[in-house]
């Protein structure tokens, strides 16, 4: 299949690109190369003759049309987004611009391309989104595909808006779409502003490991390689117009997760004192959702998908990857906002 991937130089997009190339697909990676992008993430895939890169912004309608016309893809996997909740608190405008307007521009370019091609039912616009659009859960219950949308941060509100646009383009224009909403991802190549790489980075440099609030917020963690596999499965086998929730069924409090990473670091790169001694509780994020947990029944039963990593195997592999790739990590230190506490403004 010929697939246009937006945001393929980011964390999840690059995992999709690497896996799609390994599966034998042709890829055009369209990325604006924002602060969160790193072309090293796709270095292995870029050696393939089936890989092409276009430096372009999804908000640029003529660039999107030109790329679609040049590559004639069978599918678009749309991952390009502003993705960091803390940054969305400090500067929501970029999130509205990229995640809402950008998705709208891309949908319109895709619709024109699809109509010119005679509206093939086989074309797919796969919109990749987050479980954060469903808001926060209490102690029990899970997000299903029918859960009401209740976004609480500018990031999740912008992603929720983009989900609604994609749904409307299906209902109104018949664009062949599939949609996915996934829980928190972790794994190699995650930009060092998200929890897990920040913990590893700070621990290794002997700096305080920040935990928001009491560390009792619960997240459902999924390894990025399991997510990438699920996304390609939904692209190929997902039912038209349908959405799929993807989750690892690995609920953990932030504090337990951080303690687990510290214990792995103690094993793999022992310091003078246990890394957990560096844990420091800091002011909570405003609007911090209490608990996310996905019910992945639909993707499991309809598409036979299951995650392959357990938290133990996945976190150990991830920590080892960061230890082995300190050059990758160090190169990102100077990017704006890295190492700073963001998102506390009220
Ligand atoms: N990280 C998670 O845990 C998670 C979980 C569920 C869903 N998602 C969704 O998955 C997608 C990818 O997330 P990620 O963590 O890989 O994000 P990321 O921030 O690591 O990467 C985003 C990529 O999009 C590119 N980009 C940003 N604005 C662009 C624009 N206007 N035009 C073209 N490219 C642009 C960036 O350069 C970057 O390469 C996002 O849509 C996000 O909402 C993320």
UniProtKB/TrEMBL annotation:
It catalyses: dTDP-alpha-D-glucose = dTDP-4-dehydro-6-deoxy-alpha-D-glucose + H2O. One of its GO terms (molecular function) is dTDP-glucose 4,6-dehydratase activity. The keyword Chloroplast does not apply. The keyword Lyase applies. Its cofactor is NAD(+). InterPro entries: dTDP_Gluc_deHydtase, NAD(P)-bd_dom, NAD(P)-bd_dom_sf. Pfam families: GDP_Man_Dehyd. Residues 4-318 form the NAD(P)-binding domain. Its EC number is 4.2.1.46. Signal peptide: none annotated. One of its GO terms (biological process) is nucleotide-sugar metabolic process. It comes from the Bacteria. Keywords: Lyase, NAD. PANTHER family: DTDP-D-GLUCOSE 4,6-DEHYDRATASE-RELATED (PTHR43000). Belongs to the NAD(P)-dependent epimerase/dehydratase family. dTDP-glucose dehydratase subfamily. This is dTDP-glucose 4,6-dehydratase. It comes from Ruegeria conchae.
């Amino acid at each position: 299949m010929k697939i246009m991937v937006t945001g393929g130089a980011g964390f999840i997009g690059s995992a999709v690109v690497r896996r799609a190339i390994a599966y034998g697909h042709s890829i055009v990676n369209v990325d604006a190369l924002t602060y969160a992008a790193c072309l090293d993430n796709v270095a292995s895939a870029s050696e393939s003759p089936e890989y092409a890169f276009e430096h372009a912004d999804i908000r640029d309608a003529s660039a999107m049309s030109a790329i679609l016309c040049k590559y004639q893809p069978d599918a678009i996997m749309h991952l390009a987004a502003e993705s960091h909740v803390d940054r969305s608190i400090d500067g929501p405008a970029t999130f509205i611009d990229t995640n809402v307007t950008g998705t709208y521009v891309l949908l319109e370019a895709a619709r024109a391309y699809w109509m010119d091609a005679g509206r093939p039912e086989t074309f797919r616009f796969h919109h990749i989104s987050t479980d954060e659009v469903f808001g926060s859960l209490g102690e029990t219950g899970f997000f299903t595909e029918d859960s009401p949308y209740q976004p609480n941060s500018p990031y999740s509100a912008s992603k929720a808006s983009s989900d609604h646009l994609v749904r409307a383009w299906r209902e109104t224009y018949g664009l062949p779409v599939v949609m996915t909403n996934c829980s928190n991802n972790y794994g190699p190549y995650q930009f060092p502003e998200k929890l897990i790489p920040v913990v590893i980075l700070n621990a290794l440099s002997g700096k305080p490991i920040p935990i928001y609030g009491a560390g009792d917020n619960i997240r459902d963690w999924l390894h990025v390689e399991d997510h990438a596999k699920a996304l390609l499965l939904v692209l190929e086998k997902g039912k038209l117009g349908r959405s799929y929730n993807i989750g690892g069924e690995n609920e953990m409090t932030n504090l337990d997760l951080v303690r687990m990473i510290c214990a792995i670091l103690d094993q793999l790169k022992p310091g003078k004192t246990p890394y957990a001694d560096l844990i420091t509780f800091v002011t909570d994020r405003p609007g911090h959702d209490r608990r996310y947990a996905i019910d992945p029944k639909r993707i499991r039963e309809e598409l036979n998908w299951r995650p392959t990593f357990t938290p133990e195997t996945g976190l150990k592999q991830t920590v080892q990857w960061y230890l082995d790739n300190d050059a990758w990590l160090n190169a990102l230190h100077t990017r704006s906002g890295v190492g700073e506490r963001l998102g506390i403004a009220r």
